[in-house]
């Protein structure tokens, strides 16, 4: 039976808390509140009501019949997280965390964002629940995701530009952590992925596992059996772990897809699970992309949500123990998959999801027509249209 993390927040040797002493009381408060609220029917009913009536759950499990016919291999199903309110799986986590923050009396929420989807989802949850919201975002990401920046501002959030370092997600997290250390008594940090110190990786996994629970129930109702393969993209890894977690005790094969960028030989990629080494980043022990002298390596991906030099500690554990396999997809292949899905099914995926789609299609072509592949379509691609247009 899979029961991780342990009481100290470790998945094997990965995870834990590597943080300034001033944050320890806040993390303990969050962990205590989460463990209490997850058993409380009133909290669960309120959260489920928001997920159902506000976010739009359950999301459909769609049989991509045109795409399956085109590939002439396994049947491909798509878990449609792109149809959620705000257009991505991120809203599952932000509604839950902002609701938790409100229960423990915090009135100010801070968050970081790369592609903008977590920022929009956090701003949305704060607007719905009546809390102040500040979003940190790298200058490079603000330039390539301008639509999401406008959305966050319209929703009432303050967007703070981060122009240090690579001006991407890593640097936005750094600034959000500095804000939290300074304002920890009044502020809740709404982390966007299964990274950071315990209890965030555990808590966010649990909030996102609604994706996998629904998928399991839906595929059994549609086909009467479990699939042969699940595929999801991995940056920090929240959509993937939420998709995979309810299947960990089954024999279903799982494949996580990182950003291969321009190719692993170029060092312009974000393939942490393929090229990372054990290290500490943003409060947790995990695999981290590092230079030879141990500095954090600059990363690259056409998909801002995957442009991150670390990965959630549970993914590092699942790779090490062999339960989940991980691979990568290059920028050009993700753009090609983006176009193929739009043309064959009338669905425009996020560039992040297109990485999983490219590898899922490749695997499906090698499998028999009686097999089933499910790909998690973690977000929609409206935000990426201008970027993709320059690459076609």
Could you describe the 3D structure shown?
- 43% of the residues lie in helices and 18% in strands.
- By secondary structure, it is an alpha/beta fold.
- β1 and β2 (14-15) form a beta hairpin.
- The longest helix has 15 residues, at 41-55.
**Biggest sheet, in brief?**
6 strands, mixed
Radius of gyration: 19 Å
Low-confidence segments: none
What overall geometry do the principal axes of the alpha carbons give? globular
Q: Beta-strand level of the residues, as a percent range? A: 15-25%
Kindly state the mean pLDDT as a whole number? 96
Element-by-element helix/strand order: EEHHEHEHEHEHHEHEHHEHEHEEHEHHEH
Number of helices: 16
Category by helix and strand content: alpha/beta
Distance between the first and last residues' Cα: 47 Å
Please provide the count of β strands.
14
In what order do the strands lie side by side in the largest sheet?
A: 3-4-14-9-10-13
- Percent helix range: 40-55%
List keywords for this structure.
392 residues, alpha/beta, 16 helices, four-stranded parallel β-sheet, 14 strands, 18% strand, single chain
Task: Briefly say what this structure is.
The chain has 392 residues and is an alpha/beta fold. It has 16 helices and 14 strands.
List the helices and strands and how they pair.
Blueprint: E1 10-11, E2 14-15, H1 24-37, H2 41-55, E3 61-63, H3 65-71, E4 75-80, H4 90-103, E5 108-113, H5 117-129, E6 132-138, H6 139-144, H7 146-154, E7 158-162, H8 169-182, E8 187-189, H9 200-208, H10 210-223, E9 229-233, H11 238-244, E10 253-261, H12 272-275, E11 277-281, E12 284-288, H13 313-321, E13 325-330, H14 331-345, H15 351-365, E14 372-377, H16 385-389
Parallel strand pairs: 4-14, 5-6, 5-8, 6-7, 9-10, 9-14, 10-13
Antiparallel strand pairs: 1-2, 3-4, 11-12
């Amino acid at each position: 039976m899979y029961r991780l993390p342990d009481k100290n927040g470790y998945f094997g040797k990965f995870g834990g808390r590597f943080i300034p002493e001033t944050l320890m009381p806040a993390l303990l408060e969050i962990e205590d509140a989460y463990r209490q609220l997850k058993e409380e029917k009133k909290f669960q009913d309120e959260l489920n009501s928001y997920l159902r009536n506000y976010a739009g759950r359950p999301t459909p499990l769609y049989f991509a019949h045109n795409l399956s016919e085109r590939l002439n291999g396994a049947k491909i199903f798509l878990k449609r997280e792109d149809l959620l309110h705000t257009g991505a799986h991120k809203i599952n986590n932000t509604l839950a965390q902002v609701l938790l923050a409100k229960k423990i009396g915090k009135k100010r929420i801070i968050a970081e964002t790369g592609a903008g989807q977590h920022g929009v989802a956090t701003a949305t949850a704060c607007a719905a629940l009546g809390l102040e919201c500040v979003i940190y975002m790298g200058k490079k990401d603000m330039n390539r995701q301008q639509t999401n920046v406008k959305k966050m501002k319209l929703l009432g959030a303050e967007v703070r530009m981060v122009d240090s370092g690579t001006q991407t997600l890593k640097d936005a997290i750094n600034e959000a952590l500095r804000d939290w250390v300074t304002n920890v008594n009044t502020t809740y940090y709404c982390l966007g992925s299964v990274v950071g110190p315990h209890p965030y990786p555990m808590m966010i996994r649990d909030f996102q596992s609604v994706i996998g629970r629904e998928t399991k129930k839906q595929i059994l109702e549609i086909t009467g059996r479990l699939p042969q393969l699940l595929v999801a993209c991995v940056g920090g890894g929240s959509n993937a772990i939420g998709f995979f977690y309810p299947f960990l005790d089954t024999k279903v094969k799982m494949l996580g897809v990182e950003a291969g960028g321009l190719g692993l030989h170029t060092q312009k990629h974000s393939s942490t699970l393929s090229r990372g080494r054990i290290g500490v980043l943003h409060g947790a022990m995990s695999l981290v992309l590092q230079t030879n002298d141990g500095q954090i390596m600059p990363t690259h991906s056409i998909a801002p949500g995957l442009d991150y030099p670390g990965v959630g500690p549970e993914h590092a554990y699942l790779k090490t123990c062999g339960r989940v396999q991980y691979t990568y997809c290059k920028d050009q292949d993700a753009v090609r998959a983006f176009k193929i899905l739009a043309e064959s099914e009338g669905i425009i995926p996020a560039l992040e999801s297109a990485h999983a789609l490219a590898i899922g299609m490749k695997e499906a072509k090698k499998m028999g027509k009686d097999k089933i592949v499910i790909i998690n379509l973690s977000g929609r691609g409206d935000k990426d249209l201008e970027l993709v247009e320059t690459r076609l």
